Automatic annotation (TrEMBL):
<dbReference type="InterPro" id="IPR018490">
    <property type="entry name" value="cNMP-bd_dom_sf"/>
</dbReference>
<dbReference type="Pfam" id="PF00037">
    <property type="entry name" value="Fer4"/>
</dbReference>
<keyword id="KW-0411">Iron-sulfur</keyword>
<dbReference type="InterPro" id="IPR017896">
    <property type="entry name" value="4Fe4S_Fe-S-bd"/>
</dbReference>
<dbReference type="Pfam" id="PF00027">
    <property type="entry name" value="cNMP_binding"/>
</dbReference>
<dbReference type="GO" id="GO:0046872">
    <property type="term" value="F:metal ion binding"/>
</dbReference>
<feature type="domain" description="4Fe-4S ferredoxin-type">
    <location>
        <begin position="26"/>
        <end position="55"/>
    </location>
</feature>
<dbReference type="GO" id="GO:0051539">
    <property type="term" value="F:4 iron, 4 sulfur cluster binding"/>
</dbReference>
<protein>
    <recommendedName>
        <fullName>Cyclic nucleotide-binding protein</fullName>
    </recommendedName>
</protein>
<feature type="domain" description="Cyclic nucleotide-binding">
    <location>
        <begin position="140"/>
        <end position="247"/>
    </location>
</feature>
<dbReference type="InterPro" id="IPR050294">
    <property type="entry name" value="RnfB_subfamily"/>
</dbReference>
<keyword id="KW-0479">Metal-binding</keyword>
<feature type="domain" description="4Fe-4S ferredoxin-type">
    <location>
        <begin position="602"/>
        <end position="634"/>
    </location>
</feature>
<feature type="domain" description="4Fe-4S ferredoxin-type">
    <location>
        <begin position="69"/>
        <end position="91"/>
    </location>
</feature>
<keyword id="KW-0813">Transport</keyword>
<dbReference type="InterPro" id="IPR000595">
    <property type="entry name" value="cNMP-bd_dom"/>
</dbReference>
<dbReference type="InterPro" id="IPR017900">
    <property type="entry name" value="4Fe4S_Fe_S_CS"/>
</dbReference>
Length: 649
C-alpha cells in the first residue's frame, strides 16, 4: 500500500507551528543580548510553571549548561503557543529560543522513568519486565534499536493497565474515543451491528494485537464493538497523546502504524459497502493492500475539472473519512464555482467525473481532513471482469444519480419543518438564495458538525434569553445567537461538536471528547489558545481567570450589585464531569508538582460542550417559544441526495 499526503501526518507538539525554523547559534546570542529582562514573556506564558521561572534563568539555560531542574521541566511543558512573542518590547523571538532549548535538552523519554503509577495497577503475577516482553510481541515494537526499553517504560508509565472479565466491553460501536488498546494476554471478540440490530461476530483479537487506532487517526466514532472473550484478559490502554508522543520520538513507528491501520480501515470500509457485496475476502484484502491512500487537509483539492488532472480520472476514489464539496466552475467573477453536492464517508467517484451521471468532470475539495482510497483503473477493470454483479451495481448507481441530475441545478434544502415552511419557501426563496444556502451548508462546514444549535427565526422573539441562560449556567456565555442565516433558520455561533474536531490535538489533554460525543475542556487546560487557533469556525474563546479572582476581592456591595447585573454566575446542582469528580490526576504527558503556585492557571479555554454534566441544555431549555433546537445537520437538512432533489419553489 502506498500512502501520500498533501501535508505531513498530524502530530502532537508542533503541528500548529509547522513553519518554525530553529535559530543559528549567532542569532541566539544576539537575541539574548537584546533581552532587557522585563519578564513580560513569562507573565504572558499560559504554562502554570512559568510563575516559578524567571527570564534570567531561561536566558542562562539557553546559552549555557546551567539548567535548573525547574527550567528543564518548564521547557518540556512549553507548548509553543507563541503567547510570549507579541508582548516582547524588543521583538525577540522567544518561541524560537524555546525551540532551540527543547532541541538541546532532547527527548524527555531518554530520562528516568517513574513507574509508581504503573506498578499500582499491575495484575497479580505480573511485573514490568513481563509487560515489556508482551509489548515486544507487537509488530510496532519488535525492533529494540528503534524503540529502546526506556521508551517503552515511559509508554507504560503514562498509560493504564486494565484486567477484563469475559464479556466486558472494551469499545462500543458508535461511541467516540481516541484511546488505543494493546492486548497483552487473553482474547477479545470484535462485533459489528447488522441491519437487524444484532451483533455480528467479525474476528478474534489475540495477544500481540491492538485495536482502536481508527478513532485516534480519524476522530470518527468507533466502527466496531470489542468485548473480552476470556476472564483476566489484560490490555494496555494508551491515551492518544501518549501514542502521538511515541510517534514523534520514533517516526518509523508512525509510518508502520499508519500504513497498517489504514490498510485495515480500507478493507473494513470496502466490506461494508453494498457495492462490493459478493467479492471474496481474499480479493478485498488484495484490493485494500494495493490501494493508494491519499490524505488531504482542509481546502485540499482531490482533483479538478481542468485537464491537468486528467490521469487521476482513470481511478476509483473512495472516501474513507471526512467531507468533500463537489463543484463546477461557472465562469463568473463573483461566483467562480457552483457547489452541486457534498460527499462523505462511503461515497465514491469514478474516473473523477460527476457522480450525478452527466459524465462531466468536477472539482472536488476537502471540507475537513479527508482520507481517500484510490484504486487504479487496472485493479477496477479486473474486478469488473471477475464479478459481473459488481459491474451491474455500479451501472445501477449511476442510473439512480442520473435521475437527480436535473434537480442538481435547482437544489435547495428546506430549513426546518417541511410541511410548515413549504408555503413560505414558495414566496421567499429564489434560485440564487437556494444556492447560497447550499453553499453555506457545505463550504462553511455546517455538515461537518454532529450537534448544531439552530434558531427558527419565525418563532424567535429576540429576547436573548438563550445567551443569558448560557452565561448564568457557565459564568461566561459560550454562544452567540447571531450566526449565518439560511432560509428562516439561523445557525448559531457555537461549537458544532464536529465529527473530526481538529481542535482536539492537545498535547496536554486539555480538550477531550466523551463517548457520547460532547467535546469539552478538561481540568488540564491552561488556556494556551492552540485549540482556538485550530478551530476553523472561531467557536472557542480564551478567557482570563484573573477577572474571576478580582471579582472575589471586590467589596460586598459591589459583589451584591454584580449579582443583579451578571446573574448568580454559575448554577447550583451541576453534575461534575468525570475528570472533575475527584482531585485531577496528572495529565498523560507531564506530572505536576504538589506546589500550589504551580497549579495556578492564568487562562482557560471555553466552548459549548452541550452542557455536559447537566440533564438539559440551558439555551434550549430557556427559549420561551421553542425556537432554539439542537440538530444533527445531515439528518436535519438531509443527505446529499435529499438536498439536491428539492427544487427551489
Amino acid at each position: 500500500m502506498q500512502i501520500q499526503t498533501t501535508q505531513k501526518i498530524f502530530k502532537v507538539g508542533l503541528t500548529h507551528r509547522t513553519d518554525m525554523q530553529p535559530l543559528t547559534a549567532e542569532t541566539i546570542n544576539f537575541e539574548i543580548d537584546m533581552c532587557i529582562g522585563c519578564d513580560r514573556c513569562m507573565r504572558a506564558c499560559p504554562v502554570p510553571l512559568s510563575s516559578q521561572v524567571s527570564i534570567a534563568d531561561l536566558n542562562r539555560a539557553t546559552i549555557s549548561e546551567q539548567i535548573a531542574p525547574v527550567v528543564a521541566k518548564f521547557t518540556d511543558e512549553c507548548v509553543m503557543c507563541g503567547s510570549c512573542v507579541p508582548v516582547c518590547p524588543v521583538d525577540n523571538h522567544r518561541d524560537l529560543l524555546m525551540l532551540s532549548l527543547k532541541q538541546r535538552l532532547g527527548v524527555p523519554w531518554d530520562g528516568q522513568v517513574d513507574l509508581s503509577k504503573a506498578m499500582r495497577h499491575l495484575p497479580g503475577g505480573w511485573s514490568v519486565s513481563l509487560v515489556l516482553h508482551c509489548l515486544r510481541e507487537q509488530a510496532l515494537f519488535r525492533n529494540e534499536r528503534l524503540v529502546p526499553d526506556n521508551y517503552l517504560l515511559h509508554f507504560v508509565a503514562t498509560s493504564e493497565i486494565e484486567v477484563l472479565t469475559a464479556g466486558q466491553e472494551l469499545l462500543h460501536e458508535g461511541d467516540f474515543g481516541r484511546d488505543i488498546f494493546f492486548i497483552l494476554d487473553g482474547q477479545c471478540e470484535i462485533f459489528s451491528q447488522g441491519t437487524d440490530q444484532k451483533s455480528l461476530p467479525l474476528a478474534i483479537l489475540r495477544r500481540g494485537e491492538y485495536i482502536g487506532e481508527q478513532g485516534m487517526l480519524t476522530g470518527q466514532p468507533r466502527n466496531v464493538t470489542v468485548r473480552a472473550a476470556q476472564d483476566r484478559t489484560v490490555v494496555l490502554k494508551v491515551p492518544e497523546q501518549v501514542m502521538q508522543r511515541l510517534m514523534e520520538v520514533v517516526p518509523t513507528v508512525q509510518d508502520f502504524f499508519v500504513q497498517l491501520s489504514t490498510s485495515r480501515a480500507v478493507e473494513d470500509m470496502l466490506s461494508r459497502l453494498d457495492l462490493f457485496e459478493g467479492i471474496s475476502a481474499e480479493d478485498m484484502r488484495t484490493l485494500a493492500n494495493q490501494a493508494t491512500i491519499r490524505r488531504f487537509e482542509r481546502d485540499g483539492q482531490l482533483f479538478s475539472e481542468e485537464r491537468k488532472g486528467q490521469p487521476v480520472r482513470e481511478s476509483f476514489h473512495l472516501l474513507l473519512d471526512g467531507f468533500v464539496k463537489v463543484a463546477r466552475k461557472t465562469g463568473r467573477e463573483q461566483q467562480p464555482e457552483r457547489i452541486i453536492a457534498y460527499r462523505q464517508r462511503g461515497d465514491y467517484f469514478v474516473g473523477g467525473l460527476d457522480m450525478l451521471g452527466d459524465q462531466r468532470a468536477v472539482t472536488v475539495t476537502a471540507i475537513n481532513r479527508v482520507a481517500v482510497a484510490e484504486i487504479s483503473r487496472q485493479q477496477l477493470k479486473a474486478l469488473l471482469t471477475r464479478y459481473p454483479a459488481f459491474k451491474e451495481r455500479i451501472q445501477e448507481r449511476v442510473r439512480l444519480y442520473q435521475e437527480a441530475n436535473t434537480a442538481a441545478h435547482s437544489a435547495v434544502f428546506e430549513p426546518f419543518d417541511r410541511a410548515q415552511l413549504e408555503q413560505a419557501l414558495t414566496n421567499t426563496i429564489s434560485d440564487a438564495e437556494a444556492r447560497a444556502g447550499l453553499h453555506a451548508l457545505v463550504n462553511d462546514g455546517v455538515v461537518e458538525g454532529t450537534e448544531v444549535l439552530v434558531i427558527d427565526l419565525d418563532k424567535c422573539i429576540h429576547c436573548n434569553e438563550c445567551e443569558e441562560a448560557c452565561e448564568r449556567r457557565h459564568g461566561q456565555s459560550r454562544m452567540n445567537r447571531e450566526g449565518m442565516v439560511i432560509g428562516n433558520m439561523s445557525i448559531v455561533t457555537a461549537c458544532r461538536q464536529c465529527q473530526d474536531p481538529v481542535c482536539m490535538l492537545c498535547s496536554r489533554a486539555g480538550i477531550a471528547r466523551k463517548p457520547s460525543g460532547e467535546v469539552y475542556i478538561t481540568e488540564s487546560c491552561i488556556g494556551c489558545g492552540i485549540c482556538a487557533e485550530r478551530c476553523p469556525y472561531d467557536n472557542i474563546s480564551i478567557v482570563s481567570l484573573t477577572d474571576d479572582m478580582e471579582a472575589d476581592q471586590l467589596p460586598s456591595w459591589q459583589r451584591f450589585s454584580r449579582f443583579f447585573s451578571k446573574g448568580f454566575g454559575k448554577e447550583r446542582g451541576r453534575q461534575m464531569l468525570p475528570m472533575a469528580q475527584t482531585a485531577p490526576e496528572p495529565g498523560p504527558l507531564q506530572t505536576f508538582a504538589s506546589d500550589g503556585l504551580e497549579n495556578l492557571r492564568k487562562k482557560i479555554a471555553i466552548k459549548c460542550d452541550l452542557c455536559a454534566g447537566y440533564n438539559n441544555q440551558a439555551c434550549v431549555q430557556a427559549c420561551p417559544t421553542g425556537a432554539a433546537i439542537r440538530v444533527n445537520p445531515v439528518n436535519f437538512f438531509g443527505s446529499t441526495e435529499d438536498i439536491l432533489s428539492r427544487k427551489a419553489r
